[in-house]
Design a protein that fits this description.
This protein is α/β, with parallel strands linked by helices. The protein has seven domains: about 110 residues, no CATH class; about 220 residues, no CATH class; about 30 residues, no CATH class; about 35 residues, no CATH class; about 140 residues; about 100 residues, no CATH class; about 140 residues, no CATH class. The chain contains 16 helices and 55 strands. The strands form eleven sheets. Strands 26, 27, 29, 31, 34, 37, 40, 43, 46, 48, 49, 51 and 55 form a 13-stranded parallel β-sheet that branches. A hairpin with a 2-residue loop joins strand 17 and strand 18. About 0% of the residues have low confidence. Pfam families: DUF6519 (PF20129).
Length: about 950
């Protein structure tokens, strides 16, 4: 069928990806068709890239052993075709190729699939009409044809059969055409009237081909300025629509079978049917003649070829007979040579013939437009056929005795039974070897077979070329890996070369091998390593002593290794006459426990690196000070201690400070008394919370979780009831603390549960109790240092600009907001440094008491200036556990953080600009009601908020 469209919808070279309607604009058929074609093309190209051609493992379209067709799915060049059903049937019954006949019982021949698309209108499918519209048709459809055909045994259908023709068409409007009325935009819509340009879609189509497609002996062409789309059910002339029957038109009588017989047919004994062309409206009277439908054309021509010479047999255009014997300026003039030239009513048509391929159904489309084409214009030039595109896939081969061979080789077998990508195995994948020798010489098979082959590989199969003729290989004949491995049985340290690397001590000219290096280390007076050791059996007893002695000896790049045991940390200070001092101190985690003294400090160090240290100060409150330093890096430092009045770590007058994978545990009391009191009914549970050091708690909690998991339901229920009773008489608890106990009750009341759930619940109770009573963990005394805190856990308070004070009230934050909103009232002046916290858990962020007092004085005065602030504070992907947070900086950015506190107000932020994005204030269900979702107060000159939850919290 042909469709009434205005033009071709898509040019693949323009790479359109979508079609979008604009408001107030006209929607044409080409727009809608473009959308469909763009989506179809993208899907087909994607499937072509992923699948290519083949059939799925489940539900594959195939040829059975008895030469019947098994319905199913097949993909060819990314185009999916389906023949519905589950029961195999004879090829002569296939719905898409009527009249084809069964597959022959004897061969040899090849069976292949021809997949192509054809247009379908309401003439063939009445369901396309809607009775609610009085039977009017609307859109047409395309149908994917899946035809089983045969060809000779020596033909490869995927490469030897043309998918469509390749003749180029050129159309030029005659010079004597007239333009339509420019004041009437519809005047040219009638089409190609005599002497008019018009607006229409011209179609040239191959009607019939005699002989091979690439070497035809006869050819019938037909053309239309209506795209051949004027078509109806064939009835007597008086019943046809007015104007359809006219002496100037050619009529084609056809049916569904002729429509399905387009393409190349190589099956022996099969003759495809074609529509009957009449220059008058005369319905064929033969019993088997196609006559269900009729469409009209402008004209046709029949050509025959003998040798290289083409001859006009017959032809006609708009009532004018075609002839080669008239003037080249007359209508109907035909010239034949390497190509065909015809003077049509509106065009001079030129079509290549010599050496060209023609397939029945080939068509060319050329839109003519009054607004762009004038007399003499080229409408198209050297245009190849727009369709029909046929896609071929070999299905099977039939031998002389009728035996069906479905697959050429193993690769073809996999193609005709490919698995889903989620079920892809090594035996589904082909392996192409590039080996010219060895285990895989001339290998053919799958990846699984290749891998199985590797199982039998031996060292003697693998060739080996000596990389040198020194050391182990000196004077040895080696051909395989087995030979080389045999030498390793006698390897000695003297055979292995030594690279001194960064170790200055071993950088001696006489040291060439590992044996030389070992000998040198054995002869070294002490230590033997590249670092200076500190400890009871080390080169120095304390860090301070090592630094003092080494700098006095002129060594200013110092690497210290702390031996296992306890170490006292005293004041480590750069001497005044030392220009630059680089100090690196490395431990071995809990094996090196550092106990700070009252004077514990690092002062004036230009570069300070502390790595894998365990600092403990639980029996006293001695902060570690870092002051007047350059660049300070803390990696894997675990500091646990008392910090009720101070902070575990205090940083001041330092250029850069970073913490990575560190843990700070700051305690205001020697034990977590609240959970110990609540669990007083169970000695084992209460004893957990006398371990202030988290490492010891986790070890004890794991044993306790195992005990709880082993209790029967009655035992767990008893503890749950005792805990519930203890909560009812407990003193004031925060929401977070109370919910942590209720979580344990829920776990206890589960019918079955494991150790992990109990351990998580106990850890949550400890964490919430610790957050509620946490001490000072980190004190940043000023905004001079560029601070970076990464991937760390801080159980305690981080104080900015000095020792922390209390928070500001909601009313005070509102007053600050009003002052910032007024020009010149409140000014924030920043230093150049910034503070970055990423991927970190901490208890609370606070401001120094002096800063809080300063803010209150400014509020009371009604204006003021705050100086020496951070330029920016950026907190991302972190968790802040408690309420009472207070941030102050020129710019503040919170991104992807979680505020765990369930208090009504979780904190306040003060800054010139504030950005919140992707943050969350925690909410939880308690007694079937939401709790939490508190607010973060903001005082800023400019604030931007996006994708935060709950929305009202920010």
């Amino acid at each position: 069928m042909k469709t009434q469209i205005s033009k071709k919808s898509v040019d693949a070279q323009k790479r359109y990806a979508g079609v979008y309607q604009q408001q107030g604009r006209m929607l044409t058929d080409a727009d809608w068709n473009s959308l469909v074609d763009v989506l179809k093309a993208q899907l087909a190209e994607a499937l072509k890239d992923v699948v290519g051609s083949g059939a799925p493992r489940n539900g594959a379209f195939s040829i059975a052993d008895n030469r019947n067709i098994q319905p199913g799915d097949v993909y060819i060049d990314g185009l999916r075709a389906v023949l519905p059903g589950t029961t195999a049937f004879a090829a002569g019954l296939q719905p898409d190729l009527p009249g084809s006949g069964d597959l022959p019982a004897t061969g040899p021949y090849v069976v292949y699939a021809d997949v192509w698309e054809r247009a379908l209108t309401a003439l063939e499918d009445s369901d396309l009409r809607d009775v609610a519209l009085n039977g009017a048709d609307t859109c047409t459809r395309t149908q994917t044809m899946l035809q089983v055909k045969t060809c000779g045994g020596g033909v490869n259908p995927e490469t030897d059969i043309p998918q469509k023709g390749n003749a180029a068409l050129s159309l030029d409007l005659h010079d004597n055409l007239e333009a339509s009325d420019p004041c009437d935009p519809c005047a040219g819509l009638v089409g190609a009237g005599a002497g008019r340009v018009g607006n229409y879609l011209f179609r040239l189509e191959v009607h019939a081909v005699t002989g091979d497609a690439d070497n035809p002996t006869a050819l019938t062409l037909k053309w239309s300025s209506e795209n051949g789309a004027e078509q109806f059910s064939a009835q007597t002339e008086g019943l046809m629509p007015p104007g359809f029957v006219n002496a100037r038109f050619l009529y084609e009588f056809f049916d569904s079978t002729t429509e399905k017989h387009a393409g190349v047919h190589l099956t022996s004994g099969f003759s495809p049917r074609a529509g009957i062309l009449n220059t008058t409206y005369a319905i064929p009277d033969g019993v088997s003649d196609p006559k269900d439908f009729v469409r009209r054309w402008d004209g046709y021509c029949e050509l025959s070829r003998s040798g290289s010479t083409w001859t006009l047999v017959d032809g006609w255009d708009k009532g004018v007979d075609l002839s080669t014997g008239i003037s080249s300026t007359q209508p109907g003039y035909v010239a034949l040579g390497p190509g065909l030239t015809v003077n049509l009513e509106a065009f001079r048509m030129n079509l290549e013939l010599s050496g060209r391929t023609f397939v029945v159904g080939d068509y060319w489309l050329a839109p003519v437009r009054e607004a762009v084409h004038t007399a003499g214009s080229a409408v198209c030039s050297g245009t190849l056929p727009d369709g029909i595109d046929h896609h071929f896939l070999r299905l099977a081969g039939v031998a002389a005795d009728g035996t069906v061979t479905r697959h050429v080789d193993d690769a073809d077998r996999r193609r005709h039974g490919f698995p889903p990508l989620t079920d892809l195995h090594a035996h589904d994948i082909d392996y192409q070897t590039g080996c010219t020798q060895g285990l895989f010489l001339n290998f053919q098979g799958t990846v699984k077979q290749a891998l199985d082959t590797i199982c039998s590989i031996q060292a003697e199969h693998v060739g080996f070329t000596k990389p040198c003729n020194t050391s182990l290989y000196r004077g040895q004949p080696i051909a395989t890996v087995a030979d080389a491995l045999g030498l390793l049985c006698d390897i000695r340290a003297r055979h292995v070369a030594y690279d001194t690397g960064a170790c200055a001590f071993l950088n001696q000219p006489e040291i060439e091998t590992v044996q030389d290096a070992l000998d040198a280390l054995c002869q070294r007076p002490a230590g033997g390593g590249c670092k200076v050791t500190v400890g009871e059996e080390g080169q120095f007893t304390t860090i301070a002593a090592a630094v003092k002695t080494l700098t006095a000896e002129g060594i200013f790049d110092i690497c210290l290794c702390l031996l296992r045991g306890d170490h006292a940390l005293e004041r480590v200070e750069k001497e005044k006459d030392v220009e630059l001092l680089h100090l690196s101190v490395t431990g071995c985690g809990p094996g090196t426990r550092i106990q700070p003294s009252e004077s514990a400090a690092f002062v004036g160090i230009d570069e300070l690196h502390l790595d894998d240290l365990w600092v403990v100060s639980l029996d006293h409150e001695h902060p570690v000070e870092i002051s007047d330093c350059g660049v300070v890096d803390l990696d894997r430092v675990h500091h646990v201690g008392m910090a009720a009045e101070t902070a575990l770590l205090e940083v001041s007058a330092t250029a850069a400070f970073s913490m990575n994978h560190c843990t700070l545990e700051a305690y205001a009391k020697a034990e977590l008394s609240v959970p110990a009191a609540i669990f007083s009914f169970d000695d084992d549970l209460a004893a957990l919370f006398v371990h202030p050091e988290r490492r010891e708690f986790l070890a004890a909690a794991a044993l306790e979780a195992q005990r709880l998991a082993k209790l029967n339901a009655n035992g767990r229920q008893k503890i749950a009831e005792q805990l519930q009773a203890a909560l009812e008489t407990a003193g004031r608890l925060s929401r977070n603390e109370r919910l942590s106990y209720e979580r344990l009750i829920q776990v206890l009341e589960l019918p079955e549960t494991g150790k992990t759930h109990f351990l998580d619940a106990l850890c949550d109770i400890r964490d919430q109790a610790h957050h509620a009573t946490a001490g000072g963990a980190l004190l940043l005394a000023d905004a001079l240092a560029r601070v970076s805190i990464l991937n760390s856990r801080i159980y305690g308070q981080v104080s900015l600009y000095g020792a922390s004070g209390d928070s500001l009230s909601e009313e005070e934050i509102k007053q600050l907001q009003q002052m910032l909103a007024s020009a010149g009232v409140l000014t924030l002046v920043a230093q150049a440094a910034d503070l970055s916290i990423q991927g970190t858990m901490l208890t609370r962020l606070a401001l120094a008491s002096e800063r809080v007092d300063e803010i209150r004085q400014i509020i009371e005065a009604g204006k003021g200036i705050m100086t020496d602030l951070y330029k920016a504070i950026l907190i991302s992907d972190s968790m802040i556990a408690w309420n009472g947070n207070l941030l102050l900086s020129a710019d503040v950015t919170l991104n992807g953080n979680t505020m765990e506190s369930l208090h009504t107000i979780v904190g306040s932020v003060i800054g010139e600009t504030v950005i919140y994005s992707g943050n969350r204030v925690q909410r939880r269900i308690r007694n079937n009601e939401w709790v939490g979702g508190g607010r973060l107060l903001t005082a800023a000159r400019d604030a931007v908020k996006a994708a935060n939850m709950p929305e009202g919290s920010w």
